[in-house]
Design a protein that fits this description.
Blueprint: H1 3-16, H2 21-34, H3 38-51, H4 55-69, H5 79-83, H6 86-102, H7 106-125
Helix pairs in contact: 1-2, 1-3, 3-4, 3-6, 4-7, 6-7
Length: 137
């Protein structure tokens, strides 16, 4: 994940929140393209959780992560999580936990806590080591 990818994701999320129909339609199209690399999108959104101050963008980033990593009803582990490299998983986990511990906005904190819950579900469902996550439960 480089800074231009991160900036593209941030601008896309901001575009989704604009009242301008043309800009929003363009952002929706861009999000569709970003969804072709779901784990990359999750990684960028997790980084945004630690680097952006706009509450709406942060909320949208948390919701996107949650929707992508939430295991399906017949799954113990999200396929996206299974396909992620150990380095990606560690970065997503550390970004989420850092955002969880530093967030002061209660509605946003609930969204980040939902992300952490699904991360933990994936970690333990995939029999991965996640002892450091226990301190946040």
């Amino acid at each position: 994940m480089n800074s231009s990818e991160l900036q593209l994701v941030e601008q896309t999320l901001k575009g989704l929140l604009t009242p301008d129909n043309a800009a929003r339609a363009s952002a929706e199209q861009q999000l569709g393209q970003l969804m072709s690399n779901k784990i990359g999108l999750v990684l960028c959104c997790s980084q945004l959780l630690t680097s952006v101050t706009d509450l709406n963008t942060l909320s949208y980033a948390a919701v996107i992560i949650k929707k992508i990593i939430k295991p399906g009803t017949d799954e113990e582990v999200s396929q996206v999580w299974k396909d992620a490299t150990p380095e990606m998983k560690e970065k997503i986990k550390s970004n989420t936990m850092a955002a969880l511990s530093s967030c002061k906005n209660k509605p946003l904190l609930k969204k980040i806590a939902d992300v952490a819950t699904y991360l933990i579900e994936n970690i333990y469902g995939n029999n991965e080591k996640g002892d450091d996550a226990l301190q946040y439960i």
